[in-house]
Amino acid sequence: MNNVFDDFLNWTCQNPWGVEQQFSRQLSNDTQLTIWDSGILLAEPEQAGNKDIIISCAVHGNETAPIEICRDIIQDIIAEQQPVKHRTLFIIANPASINADRRFIDENMNRLFSGAHSKGDNTSPEGQRAAKIESYVERFYTQAPAGKRQRFHYDLHTAIRDSKREKFAVYPYTHGKPHSQEQLQFLLACGVDTVLLNQAPTTTFSYFSAHQFDAHAFTVELGKVRPFGENRREDFAAAEKALRELIGQADPTLAPFKPEQHQIFAEAQTINREHQDFELNFADQTANFTAFNKGDVLAFDGGNEVRALHDNEHIIFPNARVALGHRALLTVVRVPTESLELI
Ligand code: ZN
């Protein structure tokens, strides 16, 4: 089954809902590669460093740039061009949606984690895949060598719409724990200077790793969706370089922390679609991070007007066509970096 390793992404897409068998290969540089399932590849050096790193892509199948980045890093590991100093798990989350060139097949996979996949009578293929992915994350973190270890998970995405801030990361809710200064510096090295702080639990993949396994975990938005082969890879070069250094070096050096280099936003409102007749009060193509002022009407939900509560309230991820009860819009406001409790 050499072709499994020769073109891991292709093989994954040929088996979009998974295979039970495991495949492994030892490279001449003593990196052990093991495939646990379609889209799930573990790279483990014989003398593993103290980090356990997860890099995931294709939670949304039409977000091509992160898939290309993972594909290239994996190919370089297999070709022994990319060193591996720490245990690293690659996850190509939803290959069926890559095949269909769609964000998802039945359900938005990034609303299915932390057990949401098995609420009610949910037996969708995406729900089952999310449940399996959770078990692989658990296996990866809990099978790590003994000792003091650091856990990381970068879940890579690209946005559907234009954004006034092209790259941004979502920092999952920490339940009151301090935020990590080193992680802000790592995100900056990835070209990401804008960070949204979630203020409540979510059912995203990154919150699952952060909350269940105390990992430094982030949803990282790297730019705008384009078809395969049409991504301007130089736009993603900083992120790819930082990820390659994280995997390939014992402890890559990060630039010193300067608060003014970071743009931190906190959630102001989560606006759910509660009625069938729901409309956003701005044009469909309005860019992420467009600002509204206090009192501006953002949406009509049934008979109700939903208004901005603050001046300079920025909209993110608007989508009027979500299922009833789901988030149609998030709004955020800038907070001073100095106001964060950092560790
Ligand atoms: Zn996405």
Give an overview in words.
This protein is an alpha/beta fold and 343 residues long. Helices cover 23% and strands 27% of the residues. It binds zinc ion. Zinc ion binds at residues 59-60, 63, 157.
In short:
Helices cover 23% and strands 27% of the residues.
List its traits.
343 residues, alpha/beta, Aminopeptidase, OB fold (Dihydrolipoamide Acetyltransferase, E2P), 2 domains, 13-stranded mixed β-sheet, 3-stranded antiparallel β-sheet, 8 helices, 16 strands, 23% helix, binds zinc ion
Shape: globular
Helix content: 10-25%
Q: Find the CATH superfamily of the largest domain.
A: Zn peptidases
Whole-number radius of gyration?
20 Å
Topology:
Layout: H1 2-6, H2 8-14, E1 23-26, E2 31-37, E3 40-45, E4 51-57, H3 64-78, E5 87-92, H4 95-99, H5 125-142, E6 150-159, E7 168-171, H6 181-189, E8 194-197, H7 205-213, E9 216-224, H8 237-248, E10 263-272, E11 278-280, E12 291-292, E13 297-301, E14 304-307, E15 313-316, E16 327-335
Parallel strand pairs: 4-5, 4-6, 6-9, 7-8, 8-10
Antiparallel strand pairs: 1-2, 2-3, 3-5, 7-9, 10-16, 11-13, 12-15, 13-14, 15-16
The structure holds zinc ion.
